[in-house]
Amino acid sequence: MALVATSMGLTHSEAALACALFSGITLMEASNQLGVSLNTCKSQLKAIYIKTDCRSHVDLVKAMFAACVIRGSTLA
Fold first, then answer.
1. Nearest to 22 by CA among 51, 55, 65, 54
2. Residue 8: how many CB atoms within 10 A of its CB?
3. Cα separation of 75 and 23, whole Å?
4. For 39-65, b where at least 16 C-beta lie within 10 A, e where not — what string?
5. Top mean-pLDDT range of 6-10, 34-38, 53-57, 67-71
């Protein structure tokens, strides 16, 4: 998660959400898993999209994968 936060310029909470979504769960499931409201997740996702210049979950996964490959690490 630290790799995602550092390489993508995200906060710890935003990186946690991004990693949860990267694992394939829905925003609602991520909300439950992270113990925050769905509205909080929606706000964080909007901030993630702005910070990463992504427009969709697919774009976000691609950006996360690229960050992983470039750094030669895993996202876990």
1. 65
2. 19
3. 10
4. eebeebbeebeeebebeebeebeebbe
5. 34-38
Q: Which residue has the tokens 């946690």?
A: 16
Kindly report the length of the chain: 76
Tokens standing for residue 5: 């936060």
CA atoms of 67 and 6, how far apart (whole Å): 10
Considering only CA atoms, which of 19, 11, 13, 2 is closest in space to residue 63? Answer: 19
pLDDT band at residue 66 under the 50/70/90 scheme: confident
